[in-house]
Amino acid sequence: MIIVSTGLACSLLVGGFILLVIIRVPVAFALGIATMPLIMLELRLTPFIVIDRMFQSYGSFILLAVPFFLLAANLMNSGKITDKLIDLARVLTGWMPGGLGHVNVAVSMMFAGISGSSTADAAGCGKILIPAMVREGYDTRFSIAITACSSVMGVIIPPSILMIVWGGVMNMSVGALFLAGAVPGLLIGAALMATVYGYAKVYNYPVAIRPTFADFFTAFKGAALALLTPIFVIGSIVMGIVTPTESAIIAAVYALILGMFVYRTVTVRDLGGILYDTGRFASISLFAIGTASAFGWLLAFYNVPRLIVDTMTAMQFGTFGTAIMIAALFLFFGLFIDAIPTIIILGTVLLPVATAAEIHPVAFAIIGIVSLAFGLVTPPYGLCLLISASIGGMNVSQVLRDVAIILMPMLAILMLIILFPQLALWLPSTLMPDSFR
Fold this sequence. Notes:
By secondary structure, this protein is mainly α. It is 78% helix and 0% strand. Helix 6 packs across helix 7. The longest helix is centred in the middle third of the chain and has 34 residues. The radius of gyration is 22 Å and the shape is globular.
């Protein structure tokens, strides 16, 4: 056994992890397995230390919000509440050229304000809207691409599971992060609608519906109770009434009440499957948090973050250049790794870099989360793209051209946030000045 240097430790950890991902070991397991060579070489480490770091990461009360927000999303999908949001989106945006494309974007924005999960958005909305768009004469590739790209707003528009994890890991106000994501999320939604309008003009896509006031009233009445969810969740956190975990429980209980007693679309028999799916997806996310925490702790143990900070500070990129580098790193990692372990590993490493470059921690968080959200539609990881392509019955490679076109204005919004961080900082600084400071 030897005392391992910082360079060797970084090479073993990162190199081992990349190799395991290349040979298709699941990311959560790859992060854990990559720590093994160091444990065997280093005199100061034992397997029990790594296991202890994993269990310590689960001690954060705020992480309980993750399974409850997933449960709320699953209840919304199973309770046909998504259908009511789609009906409202139809009367709000269906009258524009490329109507169903606009409906797709609008319902993703509304669903994002309820679920906090992009994958739940892609699955729930995609099952309904992709076949509907194809029947109306929309190109299948465009239908899949716009569904996948609009679903990324699920982790940008509050509430957001990624923001909850970020707040827990970085010891930041989740309420401030929620507020900071609102304007960027709305800007991305507007950019997507502009893209749909362009497609509609080029390919002569039809108008979905010309609604009357009665249609609007009926649709709003059906979706009104569901739309109260973000008011309960975000409002209660911002006003300091509940914690993020408690707000997630409120969202889950409210979705259960809507599904079982108001709309009566969820039965006792359905609950078993809903709880099973929620537990399965939550366990995957939480296990990744544990192994990523152990991996990140080893990086810190060998002073890798300090080395990166010193290196990037010596390059003197300045505030703007550092923000660009941070976004590029998150975008790159998002190609291969799930967002949650990336936040724990890369976010904690780059936070001191952002601080040294005088980037506000909340602005840094939004840049990271928006960049990681785009990884949900970029191969080889691209989970939302995989889900949407599967629903549309096409191979991912067949829709990459349309995804690239739709992503361009979304990347422009990311650049806008980097140039003008007040776009993200205005709401939290106005409504939560104490937490924001």
